[in-house]
Structure formats: structure tokens, C-alpha cells
Amino acid sequence: MSVEEQKKSGYRYWVRERNDQLYDMRPTKVEDQKQIVQPEKQVASAWNKAGTWEDKGINREQIQRILEQFLITTQNDDSFIQTAKVLRGEGSLITVRGKRKLGYEVDLEIGLASGSVVTLIGICDDEDDCEEYKVSHKNQMELRKELVKKVKNAFEQFRQSL
């Protein structure tokens, strides 16, 4: 083996070679506004950059605020909702592959403008109706279905607002 080959086969031989024409690493100011890259709005948390799976819990107080914001309306008919109280409830905001889904199961006590109080037990995201109900109103079935639909719509509006 020649001396030249021994130098090249040595550990970190390339460090000995000097390159005077190194790349200039200093940042340059971007003049054109079209070249500036805006960060995309991320659906998942910072630690979950791929957005594969994430589950955030929603407690009873947060569910109460969601219903107050999206459910209570200002209509003038008898079925318009004045109050909504969460008797029991839990929920979670699930992010799967960059898409959000809201999961919940709640028991509600809803006060109507007509003075009626409706108790809906077991409203959840994956069923169209509730498990039990107590309605003190003449059109019980229609009112129950209408109120369950309004509750589901309120949760859907919340999910879309995220």
C-alpha cells in the first residue's frame, strides 16, 4: 500500500482536505411576499405532527359551555330552548389521520319556553335517539326527536368551529 492510499484509508482523511469555497450559510431576506411560506393550521397537537391518533377528554363543564353556546336559541315558539343543564356527561375530541370526530354521551335537562322540562338520558354521538326520556309536553315523541336533533346539531357546530 502506498503512502497516498494509507492517508486516504485513515480515519477522517477528508478532514485534512481544505475547501476554501464553502457554502454561505447566512440567512438572506426574502423580498417577494409570494415566496414566504405560511405555516399550515395543524389539526393535531405539536407532538403529533403526523396526526395519526389523538384523544382529548372533554369534561362536564366544557360540555355545558358547548351547549350554552350552540344549543340555546332565541326563537319564539314553544319548543325553543331556554336552559340546558348537563346532569351527567363525558366526551372526547378524537383526531384520526388529520380528521376530527367528537365523541360524547350526555344526560340533559332542557327547559323550554313553554315551561316544560325535558330530561333526555343517554344522548350519544353514534345513535340517533336517546335511551330514556321524561317529557311533560303534549307532543312527547315529536318534541323528543326534535330536541335530540338540536343537541346533535349543537355538537356538530362545535366540531366544525374547531
In short:
The protein is an alpha+beta fold and 162 residues long.
Task: Throw out a few tags for this protein.
about 160 residues, Aha1, alpha+beta, five-stranded antiparallel beta sheet, 5 strands, Bactericidal permeability-increasing protein, domain 1, 3 helices, elongated
Q: Helices and strands: which structural class?
A: alpha+beta
Q: Provide the CATH topology of the domain at 53-161.
A: Bactericidal permeability-increasing protein, domain 1
Number of continuous helical runs: 3
- Strand arrangement within the widest β-sheet reads 1-2-3-4-5
Please state the CA-atom Rg, rounded to the nearest Å: 30 Å
CATH architecture of the domain at 53-161: Super Roll
End-to-end distance, in Å?
A: 69 Å
Approximate strand percentage? 25-35%
How many beta-strand elements?
Answer: 5
Largest sheet: 5 strands, antiparallel
Secondary structure blueprint with pairings:
Elements: H1 3-9, E1 53-58, H2 60-70, E2 81-96, E3 99-112, E4 117-124, E5 132-135, H3 140-161
Antiparallel strand pairs: 1-2, 2-3, 3-4, 4-5
Explain this structure.
InterPro entries: Aha1, AHSA1-like_N. The protein has 162 residues and is α+β, with helices and mostly antiparallel strands. It has a domain at 53-161: Activator of Hsp90 ATPase Aha1, N-terminal domain (Bactericidal permeability-increasing protein, domain 1, Super Roll). Helices cover 25% and strands 30% of the residues. The protein has a 5-stranded antiparallel beta sheet, with helices on one face. The longest helix is centred in the last third of the chain and has 22 residues, at 140-161. The chain is elongated. The protein starts with a helix and ends with a helix. The mean pLDDT is 76.
